Amino acid sequence: MSATSLPGAAPPGTDSASTVPPRKAGGTEPRRRRRAARRRRLIALVFLLPALLLLGALVAYPILFTVGRSFFDASGARFVGAENYAEMFRDPATLKAIRNSTIWVVVAPALLTGLGLVLAVLTEKIRWATAFKLLMFMPMAISFLAAGIIFRVVYEHDPQRGVLNAVAVGVHDAFGESTGYPTARARDGQVLYKRGDGSYVTSRKASPGDTVNLPLVGVPPKDLPKEAKRAREAAAETAGKGELRGVVYVDFTLGGGGKPGRVDPTERGLPRMVVEAVGGEQVVGRATTAADGSYRFTGLPAGEYSVRLPAKNFAEPYEGVSWLGPALVTPAIIGAYLWIWTGFAMVLIGAGLSAMPRDVLEAARMDGANEWQIFRKITVPLLAPVLGVVFVTLVINVMKVFDLVYIIAPGPVQEDANVLAMQMWLVSFGGGNNQGLGSALGVLLLLLVVPAMVFNIRRFRRSQS
């Protein structure tokens, strides 16, 4: 008797669990993963949203607004198309700013990268490397405003205030003559008359054995050298045989009472004056006055001579270099920029140098390479990525330089030191009040900076890959 099977029952000999149909692929687990991924993206977006809002408000919107504003006139009411861009390249001030910015881009980053490399290599060989790096990096802590004020004083033309010119005058005076009676002059109608070249010559000729005293006025007592002595004693001496002598003195008596053209008891001589004996058109003798203003010519042949005070006695004293003049103002400001940023370049390159494999250097030394060969063929090639980053970063930075130029350059030469960032400010807010042209300059500056930024970003990505 066979057992009857109930409808829907499993046949005999089979496992009832094996008859359960399998679950379809792509069920709840993949959906759960997708929901988790969406949740993570949403959380990331929530965290990024404040930064994106700030980026849009402070970067994207100003860029778009500036680009749009550059196509309108100064008032912003009339569309002028590309007229502002055409005017930008017709303006001599803008062309000079472009030229100066080019000088900045070519000179400053290259000098800074080179200085940073040399200093980074040298600091590895000294004991107090950390202290030296700290000292070199300290100018980075000073604002550009403060640094500009410091260097404005450093570059002052007056040696009493400007440090550089004080050093220059000290060196010049140590190796050259510094006479300094620029205000001295002869009385009209007296012993001396002035020639066209600025020298003074006696109106009458003299012969050996004569005494010729040379009076001058216009020298304040405060300008007399400390070694200046009374001229009375020198004038009282008589010339020896075959000797032409005299005294150069200040023909002025304090308190009055002196007689013009005569050496009075309290009148002082002028030391270090050059005096020449001239026969015809030839200088036959040259002497320098002593502390009492006396001079003498010995061994002169018989004849008549004129006594001359050369023009260099009355030249302005050396007062140094005009650092902030039209010719040197841009190099001077670049020098201030170097002072600020050299520490940055040195520290960044030094970090790359410390990560460089030392076994390569030691192997090169064992092979007989000297330090210059190691530096040129090993150190520089291995540091090429770091040097590239430093150089491009500084290129971007110098394109935006403004405050140093504005503070250091005096008003009369600001146009000679002008750069694009400063020209943009001057045109827009510094008196030009033409924000259409200023916006065009801003767009030009952006277009010049973007390639350097793209290059830097690509280099970072390659270094991470």
CATH superfamily of the domain at 91-165 and 323-433: MetI-like
The name of the CATH architecture of the domain at 91-165 and 323-433 is Orthogonal Bundle
The overall pLDDT, averaged over residues, is 85
Low-confidence stretches: 1-10, 13-18
Q: Report on the biggest sheet.
A: 5 strands, antiparallel
The count of helical stretches stands at: 14
Percent strand equals: 5-15%
Cα separation of the termini: 79 Å
Derived structural class: alpha+beta
Q: Strand-and-helix sequence, N→C?
A: HHHHHHEEEHEEEEEHHHHHHH
The CATH class assignment of the domain at 91-165 and 323-433 is Mainly Alpha
CATH topology category name of the domain at 91-165 and 323-433: MetI-like fold
Q: Which strand order spans the largest sheet, edge to edge or round the barrel? A: 1-2-8-5-6
Give the proportion of residues in helices: 40-55%
Cα-based radius of gyration, to the nearest Å? 41 Å
